[in-house]
Amino acid sequence: MNREKNYAKLLQDATPLLTAGKGEIAKSARPESIVLQSSCKKLKSKNRKKAPDFHHCVYVVLLDDAVANHPSVLKVNPKRDSKMPCVYVGLTGLTVEERFANHQAGHKSAWAVKKYGIRLLPELFEYLNPMPYEDAARMEKDLTADLRSQGYTVTGGT
After folding, report:
1. Spatial separation of the C-alpha atoms in residues 95 and 86, rounded to whole Å
2. CA–CA dist 78, 101 (Å, integer)
3. What are the tens digits of pLDDT across the range 142-151?
4. Apex CA 33: angle with CA 142 and CA 52, to 5°?
């Protein structure tokens, strides 16, 4: 519940800053990260289930507006607001910085990020991470839907 409230608040705070500064978000818009380190410790008891592996992350990449000219992007964003930024939403088991570098280097990259990726937007995802894979997969879809509903042009998030 707390994550969802933080997420909704973040989107409200970050949206005007994104649109006003062509993708530049003030550091003051960044919420404190939620740290779940205590949940990452393995349980010692053999009678208990293994603790969930909290190393998966969702991430958002700011894309150049030219990506919106592609028919495949327009098809999945029929209600896009041209004043809102174009973004890519993804999920990774790596650090988000490593994953972004892989996209740019062409290693298992999404075409939109390789060609149009500008930078990560930690303001939109940092407080959500880390989480178990199942939660990350669900969060990727939810984040994609939420950003689209606010007018963002979104790729990825499958």
Report:
1. 22
2. 30
3. 999 999 999 9
4. 65
* Widest Cα–Cα separation across the chain: 56
Least confident of 14-18, 43-47, 128-132: 43-47
- Going by C-alpha positions, the residue among 10, 47, 6 that lies closest to residue 29 is 10
Give the full edge-to-edge strand order of the sheet including 153-156.
Answer: 117-120, 57-63, 86-92, 153-156
Q: What pLDDT, in 10s, does the model give residues 17-59?
A: 455 444 444 443 333 333 333 333 333 334 445 556 888 999 9
Distance CA 105, CA 115 (A): 10
Q: Which residues make Cβ contacts (< 8 Å) with residue 36, sequence separation at least 6?
A: 54, 130, 131
Placement of tokens 């592609």 in the chain = 70
